[in-house]
Amino acid sequence: MTLLKTHALTAYYGDFQALYGISVHLDEGETVSIVGANGAGKSTLMAALTGQLKSAADMIEFDDKPIGGLRPAEILSRGIALVPEGRQLFPSLSVEENLQVGNYGRKTRGPWNLTRVYSLFPILKERKNQASTSLSGGQQQMVAVGRALMSNPRLLLCDEISLGLAPSVIKDIYKAMAEIRSEGASVVVVEQNIGQALAASDRLYCLLEGRVTLTGRPDDLTREQIRLAYFGGSNP
Amino acid sequence: MIYLDTIIQGVLLGGLYALFALGLSLIFGIMRLVNLAHGDLMILGAFAVLVGVDALGLPIPLAAVLAGIFMFMVGYALQYVLLNRTLGRDILPPLLVTFGLSIILQNGMLETFSADTQRLNMGGLQEASISLFGGLAIGMVPLITFISAIVVILFLNWLFYSTETGRAFRATSDNPQIAQLMGIDNDRIFALAMALAMVIVAIAGLYLGARATFDPLIGPSRLIFAFEAVIIGGLGSFWGTLAGGIILGLAQTFGAQINPEWQILSGHIVFLIILVIRPKGLFPRVTG
């Protein structure tokens, strides 16, 4: 069953057009990765999906209902949660409070609660009363992921969750992603790291300058195809 | 002994100034909104109590509760309908709009209640006092005012640090864009914060009217005391605001002790000295 669908989605920052008719879809339970270079429109797409950028109602369909242009709080309550780029924890809140605030707008019964998030990332339990700013980058990323999970989202959007982290930490985070998927959430992973994206997802979209340039299953795509879609240029 | 008396009067006066300032501190902390109509809203709160007592013949406590509910609704509507539209990157629109609101409130109250000075009649409470050793006495109204300020601060700290709404306030204060992604509706949270600030304003108005006379045009001069208390204490700390109020109260009563004409002036001088020495106030919590 299709959970999310965009129809020729466009997005603007003032006069600047950032997305030129993006049409993507995602099935229930599926993990899709979105790759692309800096400025390709990946984060813009996340901003549009979460209502931070306004779009026409029927450009985005979630659970068969148009959600384009809804307020961010309303979109969260429908079940789309975002792990924002750069983690963006609340500095005045402790680690535990950062997690607790994650379900402010959506208190659905589901697999995820404080206990479950602590069992996914045990280090956070030890640090629960500390200021979120005192954690390492990887631990902050865990809080950001946990915070999004607290709303028991049907669709979890992860924007650049491996950016700036050590390889061993990235491995830990993606190991957690596997567990999150096994709990039934659909996941969108935005990545600049193509290898990571291919390994973690059922399907891949490549964006270039606000357009989809390639889509397919990791096994069906060649490195050359991805290179061209990622950087642009023409087939020899 | 006269100094001890002055200290007691100054500290208790500080409780009133803290009540003036807490609402201001609350809304600046959450939404970086400087409300220039804060003083006039306090006078509106005092008039709301007065209407309850004089026009409706209610006892003071009931009139105060009704005024609190009235001001809660005024605050919610004011923020939701008007002030939310002025918030953004630019800090000028809220200043201009609340400045205009201040003028509208003053003239509206002048039109409705005339320029006569008013006072809230608290029964025998205004004359009552507690006698201490050595001929010292503490007035009941200043004492109740001070205790109310402490109760309000305890409530605010509980709300901010022990409830879900408080977490939402702090998260929105940190980063309103990201707070929305948690399902926090900024417009509603801001409206709730303003409504809460207006309840505190109603309490401040009650004691302002009980302690001294008031008229529709004295709001701005009370606003200055509120600003000074907030800034002396440092932004973002409620206890700091109380400390700021007490310092301001002490400065004024000691100034008045030297020469009655120096009361207001000495408060401003102490404020300026602290601003020079510690521009961020004595107990700042907000950074950046």
Characterize the structure shown.
The complex is a heterodimer of chains A (about 240) and B (about 290). With about 240 residues, chain A is of the alpha/beta class. Chain A is about 35% helix and about 25% strand. Chain A has a single domain (about 1-230), classed as Rossmann fold (3-Layer(aba) Sandwich). Chain A has helices spanning about 40-50, 70-80, 95-100, 115-120, 120-125, 135-150, 165-180, 195-200, 225-230; strands at about 1-5, 10-15, 15-20, 25, 30-35, 60, 65, 80-85, 155-160, 185-190, 205-210, 210-215. In chain B, strands 1-2 form a two-stranded antiparallel sheet. The longest helix of chain B is centred in the first third of the chain and has 30 residues, at about 1-30. With about 290 residues, chain B is mostly helical. Chain B is globular and about 60 Å long. The mean pLDDT of chain B is about 95. Chain B has a single domain, classed as ABC transporter involved in vitamin B12 uptake, BtuC (Orthogonal Bundle), CATH 1.10.3470. Chain B has helices spanning about 1-30, 40-55, 60-80, 90-115, 140-160, 165-175, 175-180, 185-210, 220-235, 240-260, 265-275, and strands at about 130, 135-140. At the A-B interface, helix 2 and helix 3 of A face helix 6 and helix 7 of B.
CATH class of chain A: Alpha Beta
Outline the biggest β-sheet of chain B. Answer: 2 strands, antiparallel
Which range does the strand content of chain B fall in?
under 5%
CATH homologous group name of chain A: P-loop containing nucleotide triphosphate hydrolases
CATH architecture of chain A: 3-Layer(aba) Sandwich
Overall geometry of chain A comes to: globular
Number of domains of chain B: 1
- The total count of strands of chain A amounts to 12
Major sheet description of chain A: 6 strands, mixed
Give the averaged pLDDT of chain A, no decimals.
92
Based on the structure, what is the oligomeric state of the protein chains?
heterodimer
Instruction: Tell me the CATH topology of chain A.
Output: Rossmann fold
- Please indicate the percent range of residues of chain A in DSSP E strands (runs of 2 or more): 15-25%
Number of helices of chain B: 11
- In the predicted model, the low-confidence regions of chain B spanning at least 5 consecutive residues are none
Structural class of chain B: mainly alpha
The pair of chains with the biggest contact is:
A-B, 26 and 17 residues
Along the chain, the helix and strand elements of chain B come as HHHHEEHHHHHHH
C-alpha termini separation of chain B: 44 Å
